[in-house]
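Notebook, p. 212. Picked up where the previous page left off. The plan for this session was modest: take the two constructs that came back from the sequencing core last week, fold each one, and keep the raw output in the notebook itself so nobody has to go hunting through shared drives later. Recording the first one now, exactly as returned: residue sequence, then the structure token string.
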Amino acid sequence: MQQGNVNVSFNIEPAASQGTDGGSSGSNAITPGGGAQNITLVGQTTSEGDYDQFLPIANVSGPGGYLLPGNDTTAIQRLNVYANGTDTGNATSYLVPTAGLTIVSDIDDILRITQIYEPAQGLLNSFAKAYVPWMNMPDIYANWSKSIPDFHFHYLTTTPEQVTRNYMDFIYKTYPGGSFDTRPLNFSDVSETLSIRKFLLDKIFQTYPSRKFILIADTSNSDVMKDYPAMVTDYPGQVQCIFLRNTSATDPGDKFPYDTSGFKGINQNMYMFFLVPDDLTGLDIVNGQCYNASIPQNVTFSEQGLPFGLSKKSAVGRLEVQWIWMAVWGMLFWGFLEWL
């Protein structure tokens, strides 16, 4: 748990792997030859127990050499971080070069089966049942890890950080090792509380203005549908690909609509709505081939996934669509109350 107004220090040392086994398919990171040292936070943590600082790391030697300067290499370096005064506040840190390719991946319903759009099932899958990968998605990530040099994996979930230990353990054992962003419980910052995905994406893009990014998630997240295309216009040239699993087309339990209007004007070669992991095979994402022409897109650039296959651009009048959707929401609401 976070602790406010305390001094934080930690020591770092080269890491041979991440988590229990470093991920089933590696992490594309190397173990630096040296760099072990002590780091002390400037000042204290905030009253919410957070800190956000750039801290200098000395280029000290070790038995096998030095840390590699990030602006002189494409290699991602992996370090263990041990917080002083605790045996639970430890982590793996990645030194990521200024240029290269990073994938920013959501977790729920893209890497594991969660079904967050079905309240009862979503709770069971999150807190009662063992985590299950979504189809053969681990094979897709394993292939990217093996075939794309220096590919950095970054996992971004809006789940509160206090309950993400299981997420991290699942990733370490199932997918390539990588860094994490989670939802901080910082009620003093409205942007962090209400628009956390956009807040975290902005920080990543601003920290690495010379890197290119692959963004991947699913259509059941309204913030993804708004924030992912916004990154294309907000940070020109930094978004390489956007991949979105269309859950409403493959899972009858997903009754939530999704808004594709943000993709209007974006080159189709930059994004793809896909149905199964195999739709991603054979794409040359390093060179910007992000669209599999054999996968129908059917994008209306409006609100889609409405009942009975309707969209706002369907022949049904706007008012009629709204009444239909209100009726569906009413049934879902009463079903949820009955489940409670």
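Okay, moving on. Second construct, recorded in the same format:
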Amino acid sequence: MNCNRFCGVISMGNEKKHPEIRFDGFAESWEQRGLTDVLSPTVGNNTLSRADLNYDGGEVKNVHYGDVLIKFGSFVDALNDKIPFITNGTLADYKSNLLQDGDIIFADTAEDETTGKVAEITNAKEANIVSGLHTIVYRPKRKFADCFMGYYLNTHAYRYQLLPLMQGAKVLSLGRSHLATTFVRYPSSLDEQAIIADFFRNLDDTIALKKQQHEQTSNIKKAMLRKMFPKREADVPEIRFQGFYGTWEEKILGDIFINHPFRAYIAVPISNGKYMIIQQGDNPIIGYGDGNIFLEYADVVLFGDHTLSLYKPEKPFLIATDGVKILSGLDLSGQFLYVLLGRYMPKTQGYKRHFTIVKEETVMLPPTNEEKNAIGDYFRNLDILITAQCEELEKLQNIKKACLSKMFV
């Protein structure tokens, strides 16, 4: 990704003729045409349900509208993406509806405003692929750079036209007649189209890689939580740091908790507060405020009484809601307690992990504080890495969102 090639172009007047951000070397106004002036709805689809498809094999692949909405991005790699086959479908049966590179698939129905999501077909020559239930297929009447239309038709620059056309209450839908009333804008230069499409494909590849890295690290954490604590009826873990020996000790969580009283109660954050305000839930930090902070934060864990949430504060804090326990452990670091709770909290209580249930849980503890601290530090480092990966992924996704907004008209 070379963002240095961008130059700013600010459009004038009511009709935008240029994107706000543009690659160097391109200055011509973008063309505007009716959708059906450049795309033809001449390719048929089928109405096969999921029950008619399989992933084991077959002669013909089938793009289901649900995959367009959820699974695929702005384009489908017909040769390499995981696409179901039509069970007992033969090439002869579907030959007239085979898709080509550049074909555009609209998902014509959804339960929300993702209706009209698009996927462009690539690598179709050897794939024998068709379009299925609740899709509308358009074939370009003129040459476009690979994937340009796939990206463009998923941007707000185009999709704002679809919102007033969607029909239905619980399920929204679009028809060919609705799509025919829309228009598209694009640069006439195939080179500019190709550079834009390549930019977003490279950005998508980077995002996919970061997602994969984040998932791998998260899976490592899950696996190590299982293996670095003894299984039921065992007294040593499967994996242990070098230099630590001896059997682990069984304890009841309630016997090792210290339950701290609140030091402050703040309902509404203020604009210039110094300390974070925490509530129960998966997004615990709701703002900042001033007041009588909880100073002994280093070795405590916040437990959401009625939620699945745990939080290990890194700075002094204030509590915004009730339903939260501030816990520390007898002879335990806050970091190890945080890991211990995450490992042993009951998995069968759904969202009702109330303190009265959790404190009765049996847990296993290492025989020495040194081993407890080593385990706590290991998972703290994993959490730092996972958080950094999340932040990097979110940053890339925000970059993509901003570019999709500013690089199309």
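Notes on construct two before I forget. Residues 1-14 have pLDDT under 50 and may be disordered.
Flagging for discussion at group meeting.
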